[in-house]
Amino acid sequence: MMKNTQMLQDKAYNFLIEQIKNGELENGKFYSLNQFSKDFNFSKTPLRDAVLRLDEEGYLDLVPSKGFCIHELSEQEITETYQIREAFESYCLEELSEGLDTERGRYYWNKLQSKIDAQREIFESTGDHEAFAQKDYEFHRSMIQYVGNAMMLSFYRKLMYRISQLTGLSFEKTGRMEEALNEHIAIMSAVKEKNISKINELIFTQTRTAKAINLHIIKTKSQDQN
Question: What is the residue range of the signal peptide feature (predicted)?
């Protein structure tokens, strides 16, 4: 019985995560637990437990008598997210630069290059900022995957999901896609040269640039709402 309940909670959790990732849940809108359970055929208790879990992880806010809504990231949360990203990515790329001569290192080097190629293709053809953002996520995730630390990867994915919508919006900014593409090319060049100080400098610059854009987005949204 307990195992079945956990499976139902996990099913509801995964469904909600996909809804968040795909933009199916509207920002600023409250969803009734009762109505949501009816609309998507979930039992109330597993759904509520899944929402509580997502509330604890910072994806949703559960408000008594109102239901749940998408969690709006604060300036502090965005700043902390990019601080962690900077630390993780710098470490993982340092490790990759030291392991380029290994089979695993060559595999991930090629994987990262393929993500850059995909971004270049999108930039030069459709200019689809959402598709570009997806490849951007895959590029950065691949850095973390190289190290093979499951705990780090799980935590990193959660961080990236939280800012995924803002990341997509940031690539609507004129010139940002080309700028990010060139940043990635420069990062890979530094990795190939095993230039650790350059890797750290480039990751620092990219994360600070992305953070500044995202902070501007939420400030603008806040002003528009007021």
Answer: none
